[in-house]
Amino acid sequence: xxxxxxxxxxxxxxxxxxxxxxxxxxxxxxxxxxxxxxxxxxxxxxxxxxxxxxxxxxxxxxxxxxxxxxxxxxxxxxxxxxxxxxxxxxxxxxxxxxxxxxxxxxxxxxxxxxxxxxxxxxxxxxxxxxxxxxxxxxxxxxxxxxxxxxxxxxxxxxxxxxxxxxxxxxxxxxxxxxxxxxxxxxxxxxxxxxxxxxxxxxxxxxxxxxxxxxxxxxxxxxxxxxxxxxxxxxxxxxxxxxxxxxxxxxxxxxxxxxxxxxxxxxxxxxxxxxxxxxxxxxxxxxxxxxxxxxxxxxxxxxxxxxxxxxxxxxxxxxxxxxxxxxxxxxxxxxxxxxxxxxxxxxxxxxxxxxxxxxxxxxxxxxxxxx
Length: 370
Fold this sequence. Notes:
Blueprint: E1 2-8, H1 14-31, E2 36-41, E3 53-56, H2 65-72, H3 74-77, H4 79-85, E4 90-93, E5 96-99, H5 104-112, H6 114-123, E6 128-135, H7 143-150, E7 154-157, H8 160-164, E8 172-174, H9 178-189, E9 202-206, H10 215-235, E10 237-242, E11 245-246, E12 249-250, H11 251-257, E13 265-266, H12 267-274, E14 278-281, H13 284-292, E15 297-301, H14 304-312, E16 319-321, H15 327-334, H16 339-349, H17 351-368
Parallel strand pairs: 1-2, 1-4, 2-3, 4-6, 5-6, 6-7, 7-8, 9-10, 9-14, 10-13, 14-15, 15-16
Antiparallel strand pairs: 11-12
C-alpha cells in the first residue's frame, strides 16, 4: 500500500505538525505498519523527524525567484507531483483550515498552492480522502474548488458551514478535528486525564497576531488582549507560550508588539516546565494541544473552526469570538467556582460520541480502496 499525504504545511507550527502526525497515524491504523507513506509539504525539512520520504509542495515550498518561476510555469511545476501520484494507491489530504482566502492576494496564492494540489489529486483519478477540515470562506471564485472536493471519494469537514457547501453531495461528512478525536481516545483510556485544579493558580496564554482586519479592529483586538493579561495577572501567575515560529506566522514577533520581551518557550515546553492549571489560546491547536497534555483550555477564536471543535467537545461556552473579545466573560467563566472540574467532566462525557465518529471515518476510508 502506497499513500501520499498532501497539503502538509510546516512542523514549525506545532498545530500543523500535529495534523500531519495524526494523518500518518490514521493511515497506519487503517492500512498497517508496512504502508509506504510520502509527505508533501510546504516546509518538508521541518518534518525531518519522520521516517518517510518528503517532497516540497509545488510553488509553496519554493523561495524567492524560484517561487515566481514555479508560479509562472505552473503546469511544469506540478509535473513531479503528478508523477508521484501516478505511483500512489491512495491520496490523503491533511485536515486543517488551509482551503480559504480573505483577500484577492490570498485567493491567488490559494489557486497556485492548495487549490492546485486538490485539482492535481482529483485529476490523477487516484482514490482520495480529505480529513476533517474547514472549506471556505473564499474571496473569489470558489466553484472549481467545491467541484473538485465533490469529486473526491470522501471529504470530512469539521464545521456546519463547510458542510452546507455540499448539501447534495453524499461524499461529504461532518466529523471532529483529528486532534479532537485523539483527545477523546486519550480520555476514554484514562478518564481522569484532564487535571483540574479548584482554581487557576498558573495560566498559560497562547497569542497570535490578528488577521487582515481594519486598523481600528486590530487596535481593539490588541487592547483587549492587553486588558485580558492584566486581569489574569491580578489573579494568577501568567506565562506566555509560542505555538508557531514559522516565517510569516511568528507568534514571537506579535508578543514583542505587545511589549512582552522575555524569552518565550514553545507551548509543549511551557506546559512541561510550568504545568499550568489553565491555558487560554488564540490558536485552536494550541488549545487542543493543551487538552492533549491534560490541561483545561479556553479558546479565543476568530475562525469558525474553533467554534466547531468546541461544539464537538461539548464545551462550546469555553470559546469566544476573537473579533470582539469579551474579557469579562472569559474571566467570569474560568474563575467561577469549580469551573475547571466542570469543564473536564463535560469534555469527558462527550468522548464516546466522538469515538463513534472516529470509527465511522475509519470504515469509510477503508471502504474506499476495497
